[in-house]
């Protein structure tokens, strides 16, 4: 049996949705005498999974099924309300990379910012600068502030940095949905290269081709629960069937 | 477990550029140091982007302000050397406190986009946010020391060390406040406006424009509850008067620093795990 790198044991996560949002001291003060209703939205319910070295686990599910929250809990960005995540290896999250740069800084400074947050040393960022800019195809705009970048350029740059900072486990959210066809090809090539090198992957995607092609197993999420688990191709088919079923209702 | 597997660069798909190889993750200490340096550097760069002298303005600003204040106050309070210097010391230390708490309060929100990217100690965002006000007060301290040395005997080395300790104490107070306020700001988005009002009132609570002696002694205790008061008064005592405060006064300052840091750290620790959910 190969080494276990990550275990999620019966993790649950609930978001509280108030009937009236109060975001200021003033709103809280004047709202003291006006009680509000707080709805609890369970986004993950008793999710259990284990990742072994070399696994490529696909995660499918409709919008709002809890896929992105699951990835954030696995990466330690969100805490689980219940259950436990046991991490035995370094994790590189590649999440929400299309947004969230410092718009006033140029590409090179943003590469340093994101790279150091993702655990790269300054020396390795310096050594990788040309490759990162080339991978993202933004060499000519290296000194242009990010506020002048298109969303596609910014996303490509983010993926180029993240692909440099890989650790044992990569957690990827819609990795192959960014950029044009050429960039997707490069992302897929990079993915396969990392997989061959023994990295473990968790991939969220709505694309059955991605899950079928790149994942040796997959799970299907529905309302925060794992409703199916199996080979990538099998789960991709079940996802498609559920998505095309007009009578499908999310599980309670 | 090894954090990295060596990679062979494969032939890229036709028409694509070479796929970048992976870089090894930094050792924890080096990664932390690199992150701190990058945050400080980019903070300065973003702040002074577009200014005439760029980075140099970070150094020139406190120097020119010091020169202007010395010039203007020399004209207005020519015969009152002590008052003039007391005023300048008070204004600079107050500026450090007000600016440091202002940027510290919004630090997590301002750099919140990084929190969803990876798991890292988010308190670094808060602590590094005061780097710019800290540089300003350090440049001021050097200029003031040089000025005092040229125009009079200047403070002794021991008194300069004490002054440095007071500035560090004020920095610790700013960090303690910022730790708590930065996580609370994510839930209370008008906290910065509330703090603006508090600092405007606090400017007059601290004995900056008036000597503490004009206030009846029975009220001094209340003045010293406001953290900048002790730091400003103690700094004046060692730099201008040449009389360091008593050990009991130092114990009071140390206790206040420890208290603010402890409360700040506790509030921060209680809310920090969920900050990524609120940015």
Architecture overview:
The complex is a heterodimer of chains A (252) and B (279). By secondary structure, chain A is an alpha/beta fold. Chain A has a single domain, classed as P-loop containing nucleotide triphosphate hydrolases (Rossmann fold). In chain A, 35% of the residues lie in helices and 27% in strands. Chain A has eight helices and nine strands. In chain A, the strands form two sheets. Chain A has a six-stranded mixed β-sheet, with helices on both faces. In chain A, strands 2-1-4 form a three-stranded antiparallel β-sheet. In chain A, helix 3 crosses helix 4 (122-136) and helix 7 (208-214) runs antiparallel to helix 8. The two termini of chain A are 35 Å apart. The longest helix of chain B is centred in the middle third of the chain and has 29 residues, at 157-185. Chain B is mostly helical and 279 residues long. Chain B has one domain (28-278). Chains A and B meet through helix 1, strand 5, helix 3, helix 4 and helix 6 of A and helix 1 of B.
CATH C-level class of chain A is: Alpha Beta
Shape of chain B: globular
Give me the secondary-structure category of chain B. mainly alpha
Contiguous runs where pLDDT drops below 50 for at least 5 residues of chain B:
1-20
Most strands sheet of chain B: none
Spatial strand arrangement across the major sheet of chain A:
5-6-7-3-8-9
Mean pLDDT across every amino acid position of chain B: 87
Separation of termini of chain A?
A: 35 Å
* Main pleated-sheet profile of chain A: 6 strands, mixed
User: Number of helical segments of chain A?
Assistant: 8
Based on the coordinates given, report the CATH architecture of chain A: 3-Layer(aba) Sandwich
- State the helical fraction of chain A: 25-40%
Which sequence of SSEs, written as H and E, runs from N to C of chain A? Answer: EHEEHEEHHHEHEHEEH
Series of H and E elements of chain B = HHHHHHHHHHHH
| Domain module count of chain A | 1
Q: What is the end-to-end distance of chain B?
A: 33 Å
Q: Regions of chain A with pLDDT < 50 over 5+ consecutive residues? A: none
